[in-house]
Specification:
Keywords: Cell membrane, Membrane, Transmembrane, Transmembrane helix. The protein is mainly alpha-helical. It has one domain (about 5-310). It is built from 15 helices and no strands. The termini are close together. The protein has helices at about 5-30, 40-65, 65-70, 70-95, 100-105, 110-120, 125-145, 150-155, 160-180, 190-215, 220-250, 250-255, 260-275, 280-295, 300-310. The protein is globular, with a radius of gyration of 20 Å.
């Protein structure tokens, strides 16, 4: 192993599981849609996540309480974008579309982040990035229209696919907003806990409505198994490994492992949910992945990473 110790490989092995846990949200969510109402599912997810994080972040929350209180509108908006829209609305969309479609469409979020930074922050995009954006967006459109020109011309789109597209846009907005310098001094895990709590509060009235009107509070073992999977794997484990990656190998290298989201998601949808793959899925996958790597992957970093692993 060219003198490498197990410690050298530990972060990379751990990061192989990170996108798997992130993707599990759509798999657990798709499985839970028949047993749990979407806003109730999202509320329970983020409430339990907040409560489990509180013992580890409580002191820092108190330490930064003045800043967080001053930025309560931004924190609430983050909770609305990241937990209400990208939580409950995603679960609602999964009533109408497949986890495969949702995974591939949601993967376009980094592309949308580039576009939002270009539009609102004046970020310049080079030729390579522009071509990558075009490829990725073409892949998303191909998936939404199911590879059919008739669907495109007839504007007869699947509502779930369109909602997932809106959620991907909201996640891009969440990511851009999260980069605001005002939060620079707040530890990432602490900010995540506060936003999770804010998101749970935005979901609370809708959860109450679902329980009161639809009498749909989860009671079955299958429902709570899905909820536990979403809380433990898709929320806490995924984010903890993301933080571990940033700490040990840096944000740029950690970001490269997020390119594993589409293959992991599609594979899990086929294996665990029995979903079928169509030719347009493969075409859309290669367009989205190719465009994503072309637009966002730092080529020099890829070379350094290859040299580091090989050497």
């Amino acid at each position: 192993m060219n003198g490498k110790t197990s410690a050298d490989w530990k972060p990379y092995v751990a990061l192989l599981f990170m996108p798997l846990f992130f993707t599990s949200n759509l798999i657990f969510g798709r499985a839970a849609t028949s047993a749990v109402e979407p806003w109730t599912l999202a509320f329970l997810r983020w409430t339990f996540a907040f409560l489990l994080l509180l013992p580890f972040t409580g002191m820092d929350i108190l330490r930064h309480a003045k800043l967080l209180k001053a930025q309560w509108k931004t924190v609430t908006l983050l909770g609305l974008l990241g937990m209400w829209i990208c939580g409950a609305l995603v679960y609602y969309a999964l009533h109408f579309t497949t986890a495969t479609n949702a995974t591939l469409i949601y993967t376009s979020s980094p592309i949308l982040i580039l576009l939002m930074e270009w539009i609102f922050r004046g970020r310049r995009m080079g030729l390579r990035e522009s071509i990558g954006v075009c490829f990725a967006m073409a892949g998303v459109v191909l998936i939404i229209v199911k590879g059919s020109l008739a669907v495109l011309l007839g504007l007869s789109f699947n509502a779930g696919d369109l909602i997932i597209g809106f959620c991907a846009l909201s996640w891009a907005g969440y990511s851009v907003l999260l980069k605001r310098s005002v939060f620079a001094e707040v530890p990432t895990l602490t900010l995540f806990a506060v936003v999770a709590g804010a998101g749970a509060l935005t979901l609370l009235p809708f959860m109450v409505w679902e329980v009161a009107v639809r009498e749909a509070f989860p009671t079955s073992f299958e429902a709570w198994r899905s909820i536990a999977g979403i809380v433990l794997f898709a929320s806490l484990a995924a984010f903890s490994l993301f933080q571990y990656g940033i700490k040990t190998v840096g944000p740029s290298v950690t970001g490269l492992f997020m390119y594993l989201l589409p293959p992991y998601g599609v594979l899990m949808a086929v294996v665990f949910l029995g979903e079928d793959l169509q030719p347009y899925h493969f075409a859309g996958f290669f367009l989205v992945m190719g465009g994503l790597i072309l637009a966002t992957a730092p080529i020099d970093l890829l070379r350094r990473l290859k040299t580091r692993i090989a050497g």
